[in-house]
Write a structure and sequence with these properties.
Blueprint: E1 5-10, H1 15-28, E2 32-37, H2 56-62, E3 66-69, E4 81-84, E5 105-108, H3 111-124, E6 128-131, H4 138-142, E7 156-161, H5 170-180, E8 187-192, H6 198-205, E9 212-214, H7 221-224, E10 229-232, H8 237-242, E11 248-251, E12 261-263, H9 269-278, H10 281-294, H11 302-315, H12 329-339
Parallel strand pairs: 1-2, 1-3, 3-4, 4-5, 5-6, 7-8, 7-10, 8-9, 10-11, 11-12
Helix pairs in contact: 1-11
Length: 345
């Protein structure tokens, strides 16, 4: 099916990294893509050949075949199949919190999510679930080496923390990162969630030295090939990192498992890193099993599968094949008010 139009709907800047692979895949098969940003930032970072729609009226006139978003909601009054592509892997929160009556199709990343979503779809019947893999990972996975590289000398460690105060270990581990980044035994790259408390960001920027670099990269995936392991807490980025086959040390992770080296005392940080860099066989096997369960696709073609999922959804009856979605009037009212649109759905 060619000649389709796809709207890429974002509310924050990191939507660019998630949705641009879908734009590339759409263009490769002769389809059109356009962007709409609902508040936040991101629109100012589009390049010359990327098409931006700036009003509800423009979107309705453009009449997209489907809308893709990594956000938790999108305007019900936009035309097209409404597709959820997610903004990260499960970081310890039950995925069902994202089941809201805005989406016709959930494109899941792997068997673990598919099973959970399909169980809900069977019960609720107002959306479909098709497993595709995650489009954001396409450029990254297509360049991933077939075999795991050896640990560098000196080893390079990526430190990343989420922004939620109840989940973040950034303040608790700051002094250990400072101490361990002084002697040159290991090199460090530090990156923090874009919504991190500016005070915490300043604390880590102040640690920069010849052995530690603070990275402002918007796409953390760009850093994964530069390091040998990761240290984190309950960030969804650690699940992405595990797809490289490299170890992760976490601090009080909300859902620890054998694929992680999880600690709850800063005094255990250094020995946990030493263990991770030694790559014990049982840990490496658990990482491989986690990757297969979470995102088994290594071909860099999840965007193509996502577009094909829309084709399949439409061929099998589209929204007419679904039960009517719950009304959810309060959220819909807020969307109308935010976009100042009171016309027909």
């Amino acid at each position: 099916m060619a000649g389709n139009r796809y709207l890429l709907y974002g509310s924050v800047r990191y939507a660019l990294g998630i949705l641009r692979p879908l734009q590339a895949a759409a263009r490769a098969r002769g389809d059109e893509a356009a962007w709409f940003f609902d508040g936040g930032d991101g629109a100012d970072e589009l390049i010359a050949d990327e098409h931006l729609l700036t009003s509800v009226e423009q979107v309705r006139d453009w009449n997209p075949t489907a809308i893709f978003t990594s956000s938790n909601a999108l305007p019900h009054f936009f035309p097209g199949v409404k597709v959820q592509t997610f903004h990260g892997f499960d970081a310890g929160k039950p995925r069902h919190i994202y089941i809201r009556p805005f989406f016709d199709l959930y494109c899941t990343t792997g068997p673990q999510d598919t099973a959970a979503f399909q169980a809900l779809a069977d019960r609720k019947r107002f959306f479909r679930v098709i497993e595709t893999g995650w489009p954001k990972l396409d450029p990254f996975l297509s360049g991933l080496p077939e075999t795991l590289p050896s640990v560098r000398e000196p080893p390079v460690i990526l430190y990343h923390s989420t922004f939620s105060p109840s989940w973040s270990a950034a303040k608790l581990l700051h002094d250990e990162v400072k101490r361990l980044s002084r002697d040159g035994r290991w090199r460090w790259i530090v990156t923090l969630h874009p919504k991190m408390d500016p005070e915490v960001v300043a604390m880590y920027r102040a640690l920069e030295n010849e052995h530690l670099r603070f990275a402002d990269d918007d796409n953390i995936l760009d850093l994964f090939g530069q390091v040998d392991m990761m240290c984190s807490d309950t960030s969804s980025a650690l699940s992405e990192f595990l797809l490289t086959g490299k170890p992760v040390v976490t601090f009080k992770n909300r859902r620890p498992g054998p694929q992680l080296i999880d600690i709850d005392d800063p005094a255990d940080f250094e020995p946990a890193i030493e263990r991770a860099l030694s790559r014990p066989p049982e840990l490496m096997a658990a990482i491989r099993e986690f990757a297969e369960r979470t995102h088994p696709y290594r071909d860099g073609r999840s965007s193509e599968r996502t577009l094909e999922a829309v084709d399949r959804f439409l061929a099998e009856g589209g929204t007419a094949s679904l039960k009517r979605r719950p009304l959810d009037p309060w959220r819909k009212f807020k969307l109308r008010r935010r976009l100042r649109y009171w016309g027909p759905a």
